[in-house]
């Protein structure tokens, strides 16, 4: 009986408060990427029941007939001559060459043609279909990611990663942040030049193990790749998928305002690099400072390479050749995108080709791992990225719901009515915030450009400011949202690294606020200085 009590307090009574305390310590678990996108899809479906439906007439060039096709809000299609006179009559201030050359391939909204339509609600039962539709629509990106996974798998099984990592960590000892700095600058440059974002998924499997070995966390990995690329794209100078296509759709040329965007790029890049350096230094000094510290062991277990064996440290000629091929894969990819007009099918084919080459080099010969093991490694590598590929497809399903519910154009029309008649500075600040919201609804940079520029660009004329300021507002606003928007690329990134959105948000929100505040100040000044 004495053993059942302690200082007169029964053990059961003593244990009860402890159990309550343990329950109180349980933290809220942030939903996974899949759950977040599912919830967002449901919200989008609900919106189609309450937000009034409506559409603008859309204009598209048909290369086969050499004609312009105009689709009315009610779905009636009419054929028009592909001439500049036709565009002028419609109020579309875009050069006809942009249509006939193939520079603009998506339907362009025609100003002043918005019509309210009967409500077109999407059924809750259609949610699974929209998710499947999104996957099918994003199949080119998904195949690219799976082929990337296969290439990573065959390189990894050769042991080349472990050997190269061991050599690299020895050479960078004491200067660890230089590598983070170099990667970030490269991604900023890639973002501003060619919108290097979805392709950047390829760099995580290479750099995550290296950054772990250097003492950094998952936040630094995402910051140096995704965030740096996003900063470059936010302040795009010549990015064809953002600055160029938006300028074309606005009826101006991308060289207009390029000096201002370049200035913004330098300022934004410096601010981000200083912020990343501050955070990386803190994590390096005290790992518990990491915003994702609670998942540190899981992250390290997923990406840390096994370099305990003597064989892992042996950097043989075969492994060096394999690593050179692996690095060249991304150099060739970037050259292909920038100079050869490559897109995801070509990039995927390149990865498959180099995977076969690595299989031959690493699988044959005296010390080769064998053909069967190489083939299995390709399959395992591809399967490990299936969740990432699906996330991209599911995000597109949200946009499908908004399009089918015919409410995207309603939001665009309401936004244009909101800013009509404002003064220059107030106009651009409101427009910046409007693009911030629209970035969630239409996360595609080229998609939002062709939908919104023909509507908003003419409004710039009414307040006496150059149209290139509207292009800059579109870039700053949309990408500030895409730092966190679940409909964008960030969810695929977080899924790949198994990172919680709450951890990422804690790091990224200062940069989001900076982009909006700095963008608002810069655009306001420009609207006064360059006013007509």
Automatic annotation (TrEMBL):
Transmembrane segments: 28-51, 141-165, 177-196, 202-226, 238-254, 260-280, 321-342, 348-365, 377-398, 418-441, 448-470, 509-531
Assigned keywords, A-Z: Cell membrane, Membrane, Transmembrane, Transmembrane helix
Region (Disordered): 1-22
One GO location term (cellular component): plasma membrane
Subcellular location: Cell membrane
Main location: membrane
Protein name: TRAP transporter large permease subunit
Organism: Adlercreutzia mucosicola
Lineage: Bacteria, Bacillati, Actinomycetota, Coriobacteriia, Eggerthellales
């Amino acid at each position: 009986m004495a053993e059942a009590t302690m200082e007169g307090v029964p053990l059961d009574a003593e244990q009860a408060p402890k159990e309550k305390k343990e329950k109180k310590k349980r933290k809220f678990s942030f939903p996974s990427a899949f759950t977040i996108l599912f919830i967002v899809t449901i919200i989008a479906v609900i919106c189609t029941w309450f937000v009034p439906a409506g559409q603008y007439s859309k204009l598209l060039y048909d290369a086969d007939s050499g004609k312009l096709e105009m689709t009315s809000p009610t779905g009636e299609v009419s054929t028009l001559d592909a001439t500049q006179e036709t565009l002028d009559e419609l109020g579309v201030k875009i050069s006809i060459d942009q249509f006939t050359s193939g520079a603009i391939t998506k339907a362009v909204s025609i100003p002043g043609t918005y019509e309210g339509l009967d409500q077109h609600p999407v059924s809750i039962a259609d949610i699974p279909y929209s998710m499947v539709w999104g996957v099918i629509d994003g199949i080119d990106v998904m195949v690219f990611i799976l082929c990337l996974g296969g290439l990573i798998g065959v390189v990894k099984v050769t042991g080349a990663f472990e050997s190269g990592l061991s050599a690299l960590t020895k050479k960078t000892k004491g200067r660890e942040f230089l590598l983070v700095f170099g990667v970030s600058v490269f991604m900023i440059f890639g973002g501003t030049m060619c919108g290097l974002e979805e392709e950047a998924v390829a760099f995580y499997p290479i750099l995550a193990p290296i950054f772990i070995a250097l003492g950094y966390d998952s936040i630094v990995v995402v910051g140096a790749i995704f965030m740096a690329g996003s900063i470059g794209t936010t302040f795009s100078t010549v990015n064809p998928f953002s600055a160029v296509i938006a300028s074309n759709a606005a009826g101006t040329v991308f060289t207009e305002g390029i000096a201002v965007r370049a200035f913004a790029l330098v300022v934004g890049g410096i601010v981000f690099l200083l912020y990343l350096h501050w955070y990386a230094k803190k994590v390096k000094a005290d790992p518990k400072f990491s915003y994702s510290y609670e998942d540190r062991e899981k992250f390290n277990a997923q990406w840390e390479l096994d370099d305990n064996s003597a064989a892992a440290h042996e950097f043989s000629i075969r492994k060096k050749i394999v690593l050179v091929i692996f690095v060249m894969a991304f150099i060739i990819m970037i050259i292909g995108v920038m100079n050869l007009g490559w897109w995801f099918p070509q990039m995927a084919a390149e990865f498959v080709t180099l995977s076969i080459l690595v299989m031959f080099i690493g699988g044959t010969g005296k010390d080769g791992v064998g053909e069967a093991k190489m083939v299995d490694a390709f399959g395992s590598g591809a399967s490990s990225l299936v969740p990432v590929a699906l996330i991209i497809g599911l995000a597109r399903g949200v946009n499908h719901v908004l399009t089918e519910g015919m409410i995207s154009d309603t939001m665009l029309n309401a936004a244009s009515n909101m800013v009509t008649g404002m003064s220059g500075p107030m106009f651009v600040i409101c427009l910046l915030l409007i693009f911030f919201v629209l970035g969630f609804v239409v996360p595609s940079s080229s998609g939002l450009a062709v939908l919104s520029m023909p509507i908003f660009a003419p409004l710039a004329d009414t307040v006496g400011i150059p149209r290139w300021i509207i292009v800059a507002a579109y870039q700053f606003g949309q990408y500030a949202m895409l730092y966190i928007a679940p409909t964008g690329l960030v969810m695929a990134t977080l899924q790949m690294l198994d990172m919680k959105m709450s951890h990422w948000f804690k790091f990224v929100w200062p940069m989001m606020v900076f982009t909006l505040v700095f963008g608002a100040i810069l655009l306001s000044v420009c609207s006064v200085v360059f006013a007509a």
